[in-house]
């Protein structure tokens, strides 16, 4: 258990943990923040919460499950008090990633996907992220606390919305 | 676009995103800051200032009022004394409850499943409404602290009637607000008007989130 570690071991363990799983932090930050500065702030905040929570790791769950819970919980609640929450718009501006500004079909699709995610509520964002990360319904249920059958229903609805959104794009 | 195309699209954009992210600077260089992270540093400066101002107000008020009660009660203006005592007492109760709730929120285990954690946090944040309700109970004493016995005995009857109406109105308003400022009334116009300021935004969002967690639990 992590809580048995002394300060130095804890620091090393933390650095190793972050290094191995930084992708989770970055993907959660990407899902919940459109602005690059906000994303950096959120990754920082998640790191702090992981550091604070190291004594609470429950080996019954995978480490990725534990990290997703902390990261998503931080993104939804702790971060909301600091962030100037973006509304459901996604203007192309100086903070827009370069891959969206480029005008190929793929870039347009990427922009549309980001815009779609941005419009979802906080819990649906989490479901969408975990679905895109190919997590099983059981794992998504463990992370979110929603029953596996409910996860299936919710994801089904989100997928339907995406389908409609992308089919509209194809008409142009 | 089919499912696998969508997931590929997500993965491609993530690869590009991760490459452009300055994670090393953020994830490792700030470790020393994380070690000194504590309850106070998790709060916004304005909140710390408000809490400090409240603590100073209550402490000074309590010292002055208790001194008057102990050493100068017979000479003191009773209207002022009791009005101030009620104001300080209600502020102190609201402050203690608020600090207790902030500490409880800070201690919530965020390693638990998202829905459970968010429900707990949103419910706790929403419960900070109790502090606002208690503070509204002070309304009537702001209409009585300047009165004195001479005003009641020799004052103009018209002014005394106006005074009585104002105090009574404030009392009714205080009790009504105390009873009605509740989560269930969050969508009412008067509620939104009272909690309209920027400082109430996190509270209003917590209430929205609480509603959302309820919907999710019901499978809506």
Report on this structure.
The complex is a heterodimer of chains A (172) and B (220). The model of chain A is unreliable at 84-95 (pLDDT under 50). By secondary structure, chain A is mainly α. Chain A is globular. In chain A, helix 5 packs across helix 8. Chain A has a domain at 1-86: RNA polymerase sigma factor, region 2, helix turn helix motif (Rna Polymerase Sigma Factor, Chain: A, Orthogonal Bundle), CATH 1.10.1740.10. Chain A has 8 helices and no strands. Chain B has 220 residues and is an all-alpha fold. Chain B has 11 helices and no strands. Chain B has helices spanning 3-20, 23-27, 31-35, 45-71, 78-106, 114-126, 129-136, 149-154, 157-180, 189-194, 201-217. Classes of the chains: A mainly alpha (172), B mainly alpha (220). At the A-B interface, helix 1, helix 2, helix 3, helix 5 and helix 6 of A face helix 1, helix 2, helix 3, helix 6 and helix 11 of B.
How would you spell out the order of helices and strands of chain A? HHHHHHHH
> Mind telling me the CATH superfamily name of the domain at 1-86 in chain A?
RNA polymerase sigma factor, region 2, helix turn helix motif
Structural class of chain A: mainly alpha
Characterize the quaternary organization of these chains.
heterodimer
- Percentage of residues in strands of chain A: under 5%
Mean pLDDT over the full residue set of chain B = 86
Basic shape of chain B: elongated
Helical percentage of chain A: over 70%
Structural class of chain B: mainly alpha
> How many β-strands of chain B, per DSSP?
0
The count of helical stretches of chain A stands at 8
Radius of gyration of chain A: 17 Å
Give the topology, please.
The complex is a heterodimer of chains A (172) and B (220).
Chain A: H1 7-32, H2 36-53, H3 63-78, H4 98-101, H5 105-119, H6 122-132, H7 137-144, H8 148-171
Helix pairs in contact in A: 1-2, 1-3, 1-6, 2-3, 3-7, 5-8, 6-8, 7-8
Chain B: H1 3-20, H2 23-27, H3 31-35, H4 45-71, H5 78-106, H6 114-126, H7 129-136, H8 149-154, H9 157-180, H10 189-194, H11 201-217
